[in-house]
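Q: Start with the shorter request: fold the first protein.
A: Done. Sequence, then structure:
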Amino acid sequence: MPDLTTVKSSAPNTGSLTYTIVVRCGADQQSQALSAFCFTKELLLQGHQVIRVFFYQQAVYLASDFKVMPQDETNLTALWQKLSIDHDLELGVCIAAALQAGIVDQQEANRYELRGDNLAARFTLVGLGQFAAASAECDRLVSFGG
């Protein structure tokens, strides 16, 4: 299995494009979710700009800080977090889908008088308006899952 955490320098791309990535598949569809991560990482290594990664539908579960991954499975949450740190990448999570899945940040936990928050670090709750804006600004919109 390839090392997914090591950043390798690829040849720079002079025809740089801007992308918005939509991830709709969760950890239970690990091969598709992993493909989304690997594709995004390679875009960044090739010198392209990723405006935002938007987690929607089942993918909101990737933003939960309250899950424990089996030792034989890839921790996609940690991989996305590292990529976000390494490339200052925005990881937006659909707020409506996240709330329905029980994933909240501190602000929403306070709003709904919940006992705590569980949104993983580097992930941010965003509305569909922010997704629409990122989609309008990019050269390419790529979606994973269905």
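Q: Next, the second protein, separately.
A: Sequence, then structure:
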Amino acid sequence: MKIPPLYMTFFMLALLMGCYEPKEIHEDAALFSKGEKITNDKFTGTAWLYMLATPDSLNAMYAGLVTFEPGARTNWHSHPTGQILIATKGEGYYQEEGESKRVLRQGETIKCLPNIKHWHGASSNSEFAHIAISDREKGPAQWFQPVTDKVYNGN
């Protein structure tokens, strides 16, 4: 008995589909590593840095993924050329000096103007990660005092 080609095609597809086992996709799977634990005195709490792009002789720009444990945050600081923050995970805060603290969530972006004193970090109940982009064309970031618990808590 001869099987028509169309039926043979359907048979082969059914056989192949029966052997296919899809891989499970985890929503919490990280695109990048957390990187190295930050051990300097410019942060309160625990944070990690994974450099995505480092400056070199051709390009002064840099980008890094910063991951904060709940409650962790940067000190007050500023960037001579400004900074862009792209929230990639969780809930965090951003505050410019003299302004109210702002809540940041995954997918939101902040453009911080040059030489504006600010801080950013995780909310008290959520890990938070963002990609930070800046450049060193006009010099490195200027770091200032730690953010007090009173400022962090909005009191």
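Q: Describe the second briefly.
A: DSSP finds two helices and twelve strands in the chain. The mean pLDDT is 88.
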